[in-house]
User: Fold this.
Amino acid sequence: MRFEATMKQAVVRRTVREFAGSKLADAAVEMDRTARFPLDLAGEMADLQYFGLEIPAKYGGAGLDAVSSAMVVEEISRANAAMGLCISVHNGVSAYPMYLFGTPEQHRRFLPLMASGEKIGTFCLTEPNAGSDIASIESTAIRRGDEYVLNGNKVFVTNGGVSGINLILARLRGTERAEGLTVFIVESERRGLDKGPPEDLMGMRGNPVCPILLNDCCVPSHNVLGREGEGMKVALSSLNGGRIGIGAQALGIAQACLDVSLTYAEQRYQFGKRLVELETIQKFLADMTIRIEGARLLIYRASHLKDRGLDYARESAMAKLYASEVAVEAGRRGVQMHGGYGYTKAYPIERYYRDAKVCEIYEGTSEIQRMVIARSLLSEVSGSKGENGYEHRSVHKTGSRRTYYSY
Amino acid sequence: MNIVVCIKQVPDEPIIRIDSERMTLIREGTESTINPLDRVALEAGLHLRKHNGGQVTVLSMGPPRGEESLREALAAGADRAILLTDPAFAGSDTLATSHVLARAISRLRPFPDLLLCGMKTIDSDTGHVGPQIAEELGIPQVCGVNKINLEEDSLVVERLSDGFLDTVKVTLPALISVSRECCPVRSLPLGALEIAFSQGDVTRWGCQELGVSEEEVGLKGSATRVRRLLTPAFTRKGEIVSGSPRLLVDRLIGTLEAVGLLDEEDG
Assistant:
């Protein structure tokens, strides 16, 4: 068992840390204040292949392993959580599922556009009446000749405002629960796809999260991702990978909380001492550090399992759940350590606290993660089914051969 | 134009740890990076190659882990990477290090037109190695250069010294050590890193390949020994004086004279 980054991983991490520190950290303040997404900065990141982390080089991606990819998201989020969210969602639940489930023709058409960042991706699952309960999706798809007609209302779409390619989960008409769900690749310029105004968010304000409305939107049948009726499988497997990304994002935010809290505690004097000399503050810092390192190990382990082609559904759920709770706690403790200053916008800790909260909510709430983890335990002893009645297993791509694990 | 860039892998840590017996850096278990000014030298070399053609070879002397920095240099665009590594090199001072690097450079065919390096490193800060390589190879050198222009078979370079801008024409082959202003450093694309680490090739040369004896390198080949390392202590001794302006001026002049900051003639 080795607990060190490989040489490549160490260099990738440092390269991204330096880029994020010099280019993204200052931008984070402005993105939060104005709730605007800087496309020029995203363009710079695209040139460095941040939009094609695990996509093979032949499609213009960086071809990184999952551990390196998690490190990239962690370091970006440490400097700029809203940008980390963009990269995490684009790569984890849009570009990667396209790679995993796409046909060779879909790969040729879409992966170069996504890996180059020319088209930013989304994953549209949540609706006004469906979120944690995926099987309640109401958006419909009706087959008409060689195309499908989509209707529905997707909400809280991360990257929505700037997206070019959207993966949309909809139900084939006449089906119930999970059986008829299908994922469609829908380009933003298709007639019948409209974007609503961006949400006025509590945190991650720089990410253009918005509703996507489908009104008789016609999509050719060759834009189905995976097979008809396999939407639940595509969705759950996408979320497995995506959860590593959200965990890495939460980890970056938690680390940022520790970074600024430590700096503050070294500079601030109370009772004639620096805060770091006070035992209570030392305990805060020690607890934050232990939890952050624990989260980091869980995330790297889930990524490592993914790299080895093993099942990582439970591990990614544990990593996402733990890291997001660690981030919220690090934000809470961080604000507390900063005292009154922590409650002002003069220090970044309040932003980190706001940014952290959503990590407990999106890509599966903490409650759903606990359900996934518990059911995977139960399935080992009693063979019961997982999330939404499905056994929750990972799907991998091994070379050009697609390997579906028992599902 | 064939260019050699000498790079050093340095610790990327806020606090550098020293082996108290050998008085050398502890590298084990630390994060490392390419010395920032050597990274500038590499960019300058790649920039010259882009406009004038040729090859960029990167050389580094150090422990096996130095491969990491050389692969990073390959990702940046270097054509060839050579790691000079041998247990016998351990403990080399700047003279022994320069000797190893000079021997490696003299083995390259054709002999390079230009040698580039950073003007100093962030860990030892001596600025010795570049000039010593040039001396051993018997070629001209210009240090602390912030601008390089190629003119046929010579370079016209600029350097800042004591607030003046020197413009120096130097015939090739030559060694140039660069300052931070010489060239902007790019962030590297992630795919280039992936390829350099999975497919890139790093040649390794030790004593045998270089034809040097163990007496010439490492602690044995070093002309200097670090006896002690310490952090200088700076103490501020403020003094508050009061009185009439005349008295205060006399007192100030007297104090400055006493510590040698003012000649009596100036006063």
